[in-house]
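Task: sequence in, structure out. Protein: Adenylosuccinate synthetase.
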Amino acid sequence: MTQVDVLLGLQWGDEGKGKIVDVLSPQYDLIARFQGGPNAGHTLEFDGKKFVLNTIPSGIFNEKTMNLIGNGVVIDPIILKRELDNLRAAGHDPIATGKLVIARKAHLILPTHQLLDAANEQRMGKDKIGSTLKGIGPTYMDKTGRNGLRVGDTTLPDFKERYNKLVEKHKEILSHYEFEYDLTEKEAAFFEAIEFIKSIPHVDSEHYVNGFLKAGKKVLAEGAQGTLLDIDFGSYPFVTSSNTTTAGACTGLGIAPNKIGNVYGIFKAYCTRVGGGPFPTELDDEVGENLRQVGHEFGATTGRARRCGWIDIPALKYAIMLNGVTELIMMKADVLDGFDTIYACTHYEHNGETIDYMPYDIISVKPTPVLKAIAGWKTDVTKINKVEEIPANLAAYITFLEKELEVPVKYLSVGPDRVQTLELI
Ligand code: GDP
Ligand code: IMO
Ligand code: MG
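Result:
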């Protein structure tokens, strides 16, 4: 019997999960998304082509790998159809090749869930979360409130009535907001997309994944967002609405905790965040702007500028603890190529104390990062493909992080393309 390896983000998302899942997918028989929805934007680059996936797992370009959208994911049928249409137009048709299956128990994002998301953010004004406005929060609210519609419901004869009942409830809530909307077009697109997703095989993800394990096949669970956006352990309320941590892979696929194998924790050589909320190491200056420009730090889903800052070791330690990370993956080292000196936050000064953890009151009192200066490598690393070619100062940065974090760095990414990846151990 095999186990499920997990790959997830240790920061605030956009660490490069899509790229690395694609790189690792030849080692796996199944790639499974376990939470989140089209708030995710996972970018892959190979052979001079670039793809952004929102709902479809990032193993989709590998010939032999199956891909599952798990029960913990919330699915917008319109977006999923568009993703599949785009893939088909680029010569990849997972429906024709039978490489994509979808969990019956995954919940559906309705057009009115998006309206509720937008109405709520509008009302919050300057205190808004900075949601991607994909309807994620309201859909998970209906899931836990036991009102939601699931993929499996689409084949029931009374699906339309169930839909109408939920939409009536949403309209009533919307009537309490000063919020104008017109549902006609979106609703037509929704029902067209529902018909389309009926053609994707529906499975019970718990039996499906455990069946792979029983057959001795290899499974990788692909996280979305990042640990610091976790609904329980992130910087609440500036979080998403799912468990982005390893525990989420258990509930989001239907696997027992003792079936978890390796946990790959992925992080950038610096740090970014998109949307509102605390970010202790944020650089609100020309250094931050430099990171944003060199790293092309603009959202894959919404195009918003990402906030940028130095690497945050207390936050990474927290994420490693929560997830049981066994191996680290460091991304975007090349973005730091031009810096004479880079910095790493080792502690925070907070309420007169020096601490090395994320405090509960991080929302109301900004911790001051204690920074350690690290000599830059001043070398273009984007073309290196041997471990021996890694500049000494970059190797020293990695060793420093491994010592602080007490977990080895297994892969190093030096550019967005599949081939710009080095295996260190
Ligand atoms: P994800 O949400 O974790 O999959 O990450 P995103 O795709 O949202 O954001 C990562 C961005 O960085 C994408 O534009 C990737 O193409 C790009 N990227 C990934 N790895 C590297 C790297 O090592 N160097 C550089 N320069 N870009 C990278
Ligand atoms: P990937 O998988 C970065 C952020 C939003 C917002 C907060 C809540 O590409 O790493 P939501 O739409 O979930 O209600 O937004 O979470 N957010 C992400 N930030 N990467 C993501 O996904 C994100 N998904 C949501 O910006 O601050
Ligand atoms: Mg992303």
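Residues 118 and 142 are 16 Å apart (CA to CA).
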